[in-house]
Amino acid sequence: ILKDIDFQATEGEFIYLIGRVGSGKSSLLKTFYGELDIDQEDAEKAEVLGESVLDIKQKRIPALRRQMGIIFQDFQLLHDRSVAKNLKFVLQATGWKDKEKIKQRIREVLEQVGMIDKAAKMPSELSGGEQQRIAIARAFLNNPKIILADEPTGNLDPETASNIVSILKDTCKNGTTVIMSTHNINLLSQFPGKVYRCMEQALVPVTDEAQTKDLEEDSTSVEPLIEPVLEEEAQAEDSKE
């Protein structure tokens, strides 16, 4: 989808990826954690955390991902176990064995996202915003060097979205790099960071305020999508009468 990418992230940066649906934001994030391959014929260099992802061996990908935290729009929590057991599962899968250290780390990340009182809850008992906080806590577990967040506020109301981004922005103070795709253009002024726009198969840096004037075209609001549907349903009901 994207070609001739020139992209670099440094320690502690907060970076937005914006663009229309299908413009390549998610695909770019997937190349960072080895989910999608990069065309080796066209690419000169592609490194993530010092590891070349152009020719990375499949067996090296888990080690690379352990240095990252990945946050999905749909949370991807395990619904057959509690919040604490969701986090415990990840720690054990990444090599943690000491039971007390596991408990302590779970407490630390839940406190970090303000969810310590939800440890015993099942995901189905939590709101969307609460589930996303747990997904962020999961991403924090192994003190990642990079956090990749794919539309983490896409299904959330504005206030909850702001709270989520505030948590992510705060982690940059510890040297963690956050790369986040979003359609919520309002976040760019509320939580400033470096901005890249995916458009016409290219990744374009947004370098000044003047360039943000047309970014609203790329933002996806739910209401414009819903209104025609509601109007159509209303017309259908009227015709029945």
TrEMBL record:
The keyword ATP-binding applies. Pfam families: ABC_tran (PF00005). The keyword Nucleotidyltransferase does not apply. Residues 209-241 are annotated as: Disordered. One of its GO terms (cellular component) is plasma membrane. SMART domains: AAA. Residues 1-225 form the ABC transporter domain. Keywords: ATP-binding, Nucleotide-binding. GO terms for molecular function: ATP binding; ATP hydrolysis activity; transmembrane transporter activity. Residues 229-241 have a biased composition (Acidic residues). InterPro entries: AAA+_ATPase, ABC_transporter-like_ATP-bd, ABC_transporter-like_CS, ABC_transpr_LolD-like, P-loop_NTPase. It comes from the Bacteria. This is ATP-binding cassette domain-containing protein. It comes from Prevotella histicola.
